[in-house]
Write a structure and sequence with these properties.
Elements (H helix, E strand, L loop, with lengths): L1 H11 L3 H20 L3 H11 L4 H25 L5 H24 L6 H19 L12 H15 L3 H11 L4 H26 L6 H24 L2 H25 L1
Helix pairs in contact: 2-3, 2-9, 2-10, 3-4, 4-9, 4-10, 5-7, 5-9, 6-8, 6-11, 7-8, 8-9
Length: about 260
């Protein structure tokens, strides 16, 4: 009986916001696992509306992503959505870029570059949609993938989310099949977020965001297998359309808010 009473007491003292964080983490991870992007963008925007500082918001999201991306990446690997060669080419540059970006955000104001990131991603979203109506042939992944991983890691940490939108959208726009792009980028993201989290923890105190992290982790872990499952079964052209529209919508919204604000 004492154990039951302790459990009841625990749940009674859980802040209401925790359940909201769990729901947001679940929805964001389903989107991210299916489309290869938007977990960080969605969660980071939500935390900012609650008054969390950009650095703490980005740190909270990426610490939560360490857990969610581990499950998501494993699910994609089990469902054979991961291209090993592409994964290895993204891995080291992504880790280096993520660590550098986390250091910069922890010590400097990163918001000034966001409009340029938004503009770039709007263009990439349009390119993806245009490519739906053209014949696609898989392209050889050249040396340009290394700076892509490096830049994606930096922008992901500084912008509170961006590894998926930058890397996934660029690869898909270049003609790489969405299924393998999304699965591979998700798998590499675990190691990128791990590097970012280590840097954030080294420079920032996260006591005020513990419930946000906890809620995002729970919701994301529950949702991760669903995203990988949907990714393998959604046809290529509708998936590309969803990616393109999502990239344009999210970044146009952010750009408009920046201009108005």
């Amino acid at each position: 009986m004492e154990i039951i009473e302790n459990i009841k007491e625990f749940f009674l003292h859980i802040p209401t916001n925790l359940w909201i964080f769990i729901l947001v983490g679940f929805v964001a991870q389903v989107i991210d696992g299916t489309l290869g992007m938007a977990y960080g963008v969605s969660c980071n925007s939500f935390l900012l509306t609650f008054g969390v500082s950009p650095a703490i918001a980005s740190a909270s999201v990426h610490i939560a992503e360490v857990f969610t991306t581990s499950v998501s990446g494993f699910s994609h690997w089990r469902l054979k959505n991961v291209d090993k060669s592409m994964f290895l080419k993204l891995l080291i540059p992504g880790i280096v870029g993520g660590a550098v970006g986390a250091y910069l955000l922890s010590n400097f104001e990163g918001g000034i570059i966001k409009p340029y990131i938004n503009s770039y991603l709007i263009i990439m979203g349009a390119v993806i949609i245009i490519k739906i109506f053209r014949k696609q042939k898989p392209k050889h992944i050249g040396g340009w993938i290394y700076p892509l991983g490096l830049g994606g890691g930096v922008l992901d940490a500084v912008g509170g989310g961006g590894w998926g939108p930058v890397v996934t959208s660029t690869l898909i726009a270049s003609g790489v099949e969405p299924r393998y792009t999304i699965g591979t980028v998700n798998a590499a993201e675990f190691f990128v977020t791990m590097a970012e989290s280590i840097m954030f923890i080294s420079f920032l105190g996260l006591q005020d965001s513990i419930y946000a992290i906890f809620g995002l982790v729970i919701g994301g872990i529950i949702a991760a297998p669903f995203g990988a499952f949907l990714c393998k079964r959604v046809p290529m052209k509708p998936l590309m359309a969803l990616v393109g529209v999502l990239v344009i919508f999210l970044n146009a919204k952010s750009l408009i808010e920046y201009i108005i604000g």
